[in-house]
Write a structure and sequence with these properties.
Layout: H1 2-7, E1 19-28, E2 34-40, E3 45-47, E4 49-52, H2 59-71, E5 77-78, E6 85-91, E7 102-112, E8 125-132, H3 133-137, H4 143-155
Parallel strand pairs: 1-7
Antiparallel strand pairs: 1-2, 1-4, 2-3, 2-8, 5-7, 6-7
Length: 176
């Protein structure tokens, strides 16, 4: 991901091939016991909410925007401003759209929904529903989503995580 950032000035645009950044959000209930997934219409599988950065380099904002667009839930709150997971996955060629096979460099965040949040099914989804961890891992998940479920499972004993995470200070580069 760092190499893509360093080598590709337009890496936050979907027109960047062979790879570009995307962002996604695993949305949890307020108590952290359920995850909201949608059955993606085009991909025909259950997954977290997410999509293309479309030029926006604030990847956390992209994850929030995509989760709102696809779930209809206002007031989603990031558990942390830091990514929860990083995933690189291949997207097959789509000749009808003139897209070659390429890679999505997906930066994934963890969000919580407000108490009693109500979702709305967008055009991108066939269905949206809450899943317990057990129900989620019973689905035919991608390797990346299975990893997200495993990370979620590790958080459950201490949820809700409302303390603010901090970004560590890094020493400034020095010149010789």
């Amino acid at each position: 991901m760092l190499a893509l950032l360093d080598s590709t000035p337009d890496c936050f645009y979907r027109s960047s091939f062979p790879a570009h950044f995307t962002s996604s959000a695993l949305v949890l209930s307020t108590d952290g016991r359920q995850a909201l997934l949608h059955h993606h219409r085009k991909l025909d599988r259950c997954m977290q909410f997410g999509g293309h950065a479309d030029g926006d380099e604030d990847i956390l904002r992209v994850a929030r925007r995509e989760a709102l667009e696809e779930s209809g839930i206002e007031g989603l709150e990031p558990v942390s401003p830091l990514p929860f997971d990083l995933d690189i996955h291949e997207i097959p060629e789509r000749p009808a759209l003139g897209e070659p096979a390429h890679f999505h460099y997906d930066v994934r965040f963890l969000f919580t929904a407000p108490e009693n949040a109500r979702f709305a099914i967008s055009e991108e989804s066939l269905e949206i529903r809450w899943f317990s961890l057990e129900e989620m891992v019973a689905l035919p998940l991608s390797a990346g989503l299975r990893r997200l479920a495993s990370k979620w499972q590790n958080l459950l004993p201490g949820f809700p995580l409302r303390s603010e995470f901090t970004i560590p200070d890094f020493p400034s580069p020095t010149s010789d």
